[in-house]
Amino acid sequence: MPKKADTPQRKARRNYEVRNKDAREQATMQFNTRLPREECDEICAFLKKHGISKVDLIREGYRAMKTYYCPKDGKEIKE
């Protein structure tokens, strides 16, 4: 497949990506998990049905786990 011609907009976008790559990598993080396809499809369908984003799922799950594993003072329980 031949490469598309460089346009001023493409050059500007590419330059922007190069300049801001490190800042974007430090500002965001991926969990890179692997789930069975059926389970992933089920989760995605549930989220779509209820209008919940994956980011909200992660945040709420973290809050629930933090509440479960941390006492009222906010310090982690040592097992």
What descriptors fit this protein?
mainly alpha, single chain, 79 residues
Task: Please provide a written account of the structure.
This protein is mainly alpha-helical and 79 residues long. It has a domain at 54-79. It is 63% helix and 0% strand. It contains three helices and no strands. It has helices at residues 8-27, 37-50, 54-69. It is extended, with a radius of gyration of 20 Å.
Secondary-structure-based class equals mainly alpha
- Beta percentage is under 5%
Reported for the largest beta sheet, the result is: none
**How much is the average pLDDT?**
86
Radius of gyration based on Cα positions: 20 Å
Number of helices: 3
Our measurement of the CA-to-CA distance between the termini, rounded to an integer number of angstroms, reads 57 Å
Extended strand count: 0
Proportion in helices:
55-70%
Low-confidence stretches: none
Summarize the model shown.
The protein has about 80 residues and is mainly alpha-helical. It is about 65% helix and about 0% strand.
Write the layout of secondary structure elements.
Blueprint: H1 8-27, H2 37-50, H3 54-69
